[in-house]
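Q: A reviewer asked whether we had any structural model of the full assembly, not just the individual parts. We don't, so I'm hoping you can provide one. Inputs are below.
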Amino acid sequence: MADEPSAQMNNKFVHDQLIRFSHCDPAGIVYFPRFFDLAHATMEDWLAQGVGQGLPALIGERRIGTPTVSIQCDFVKTLRIGDTLRFELTVTKVGNSSVNLAYRGLKNGGSDEHLNIRQTIVFMDLAAGRAIPIPDDLRPRIEHFLVQP
Amino acid sequence: MADEPSAQMNNKFVHDQLIRFSHCDPAGIVYFPRFFDLAHATMEDWLAQGVGQGLPALIGERRIGTPTVSIQCDFVKTLRIGDTLRFELTVTKVGNSSVNLAYRGLKNGGSDEHLNIRQTIVFMDLAAGRAIPIPDDLRPRIEHFLVQP
Amino acid sequence: MADEPSAQMNNKFVHDQLIRFSHCDPAGIVYFPRFFDLAHATMEDWLAQGVGQGLPALIGERRIGTPTVSIQCDFVKTLRIGDTLRFELTVTKVGNSSVNLAYRGLKNGGSDEHLNIRQTIVFMDLAAGRAIPIPDDLRPRIEHFLVQP
Amino acid sequence: MADEPSAQMNNKFVHDQLIRFSHCDPAGIVYFPRFFDLAHATMEDWLAQGVGQGLPALIGERRIGTPTVSIQCDFVKTLRIGDTLRFELTVTKVGNSSVNLAYRGLKNGGSDEHLNIRQTIVFMDLAAGRAIPIPDDLRPRIEHFLVQP
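A: Here is a predicted structure for the entire assembly that you could use as a starting point for your response.
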C-alpha cells in the first residue's frame, strides 16, 4: 500500500476514534475483537462520507448489504484507553461484486503502524441473499479510493 | 423475592455462565454493561427451556419479540474472569402484555447476592411494532415461574 | 429533572453519538445493553471535558475508578442505525463518595425523550478496593452539573 | 489442516456455542466481530481443559498473557440466532514464544465449513510487556494438539 498516494490515482479516508474503557481488557489494552468494531465504524463513515451512500439507506432503502467475506489483521503495537486510533482506509482492489479494503492503524497522530487490517466485502442483495455487481452509482466513488499496490 | 420458594407457588430458573476475558475491564472486573448481555442469555435459555418457546422461533416464525421497556440493576459485589455467575430468574408480575423478571446474581455456587436485576419485557408484534397480549400457549408456562413477593 | 435549568443552578453536558450497525439487533433497533456502552462513553467525555479529569489519567495515574453501583433505564422509544442519540447528562445528587447521574436520551435533535438512565457511581481507590471521598479538586466541577429535582 | 487427524499425530479441541441474540445484526446473521469473541471463548476453554492451564490463573497468578499478534478469517456461510457453532481447534505450529491456532467453524453438527480462523498468539510476560518462551509445563500439552499440515 502506497504511503503517499498521488492525488490523481487515489485517496485515503482518514478516521479518528477515541479508545474507550469498553474497548480495553484486563491487561489494560484494546481487546482485539473490538478493533473490528472500530474498523466497521470507519467503513460506515467511509461509505457515508467518502462514497456518498451510508449503510442505513443502503440497507434500509436499497436492501443492499456489504457483508465481510474475509478479514485479516496484524497487531503490531498495543493501544490503551485514552489513545486516539486513526484508521487510514484505502481500496486495494475493486472486483465485480467485491471490494478489498486496507486499514492502517496509527496512534495519537503518529505515523507508526500499530495495526493493519485487510478486508474483503461483497455487495449483496439482502432479499435474495446473493452477491450483486457493485451498483453503478457507487463504483466510481469507490474507485476514487483505489491505490496502486 | 422469596429465597426458598415453595414448589407450588413458584419456580426459579437457574442458569450458570462463566465470566470470560471479554466480559472484564481494565480493573479486572466485569464491565457492567456485559451483565445485561449475560442476563439476556439467561432470559433466552429460560424462554427456550423454561417456557418452552425459544427466541429464534418466536422471532423467526411467529414474528413476536420481547423488547425490554425498563431495567434496573444493583451491583453489590464484583465478579472476575474465571468466576461462575449464577442467575436465578423468577417472574415477579405477569400483566396483559408485560412480564416482570428478577435475576439474583450469585458467584461460584455461593448464596451471597452479587447483583440483582429487575426487568420488564413486553410481548410485541414485530411487524406491527406494538404490544400484544402474552400468547395463550405461553402464559401458563410463564406463570409457573411467578413468585409471591 | 428540570428541562431548562437556570444557568446558575446547574448545567447539562450534551453528547451526541451515531447509532451504528454494531449497536443494532435482528429487529433493526438498538440492542438495549449497547445503550449502557453509549452512556459510559458520555460519562467518559463528561469526566474529561466537563469535570476536567479524564478516566485514563484518573485510573492510570491516580488509581481511582468510578464503578457503577446501581443503574436503571426506561426505554420509551426505539432508535435505529443512522439515528443520532443525544444524551443530556446532569448530576442529581452528590454524596460523600457517590454521584448520581441522569441521562436523557433524545433522537436526531428532537426533544422527545426516547430513553432515560439514572446511575450511581462511586469513587474508589483501585488499589485498596474501597470507596473514597470524591477528590477535592473534582467536587466543585461535579457540583457544577447538579440540578435541583 | 487435516480433516481426520490420526490419533497419534494430533488432536482437536471441539467446542460448541449457541448463537445468541446479542451476536446477530440487523440482517439477522452473526455480526462478524462477534466470531472473534466466540473464538476467544474457545481458546479460553482449550487452555483450561485442553492445555490444563486456564487464562484466569495464567494471567492472575503467573502474570502471563497470550495476546493475539495476527488473525485472519474466511466467512464462508452465515450463522443465525439459535444455530450452534462448533469450533474445532487445532495447533498448526509451535514456535519459541508463539503458537498458531486454526479454528474450523461448523454449524448444528454438520461437517460443512462455515468459517475458518487462523490466529497467532504469543506468550507474554505481562509485567515486562515482552514475549517469553512457551512455559515448559505447557509446551507438551500444546503440542498434543499439533496437526501436520
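A: Points you may want to mention in the reply: The interface with chain A takes residues 21-22, 24-28, 31, 33, 81 of chain B (CB under 8 Å). The CA atoms of residues 85 and 107 of chain B lie 5 Å apart.
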